[in-house]
What does this fold into?
Amino acid sequence: MNWQLKNIRHDFDVAEGDVGVTVRLGRKWANRCTGHIVGVDLWECDKPHEGPCPLVEKIREDGEVIAEVTHCKYRGKAKVIGVWYGELHRLPPALLALEHEKSSRTLDGLRKSLKRGYGREIGDDEEVTAVIYYRTEVAD
Ligand SMILES: [Zn+2]
It folds into this structure.
């Protein structure tokens, strides 16, 4: 089974067949991915969450619910090909340059994106994992 790799309020700016990097707080992804190749399903949502999407919109017709639409959008598949783990300010510039969100390819832009995703400022000395992946599929 693939892990779910979710972006909060941003898409994946990585073409099929190209390599991207995403930076996540803490060690969870480093532990998941060390020593073996991990497949991931790429998702995007407006809200951080695990499991079923809490942002469900009910589509009604004549007062009756005819469909439910969630905000989670499936964006395709990738294979994790490596991880780097350490303090945010030590993130290697070459990995920063591959950030999968274009606006996060500077440390300042990355800090803003992390704040958006985690709901608080992330300190330069906090430990993060950079997940390096090869994108195998882009979903429409
Ligand atoms: Zn969701």
The chain has a mean pLDDT of 91. The chain has one domain: 3-138. The chain is about 15% helix and 45% strand. The radius of gyration is 16 Å.
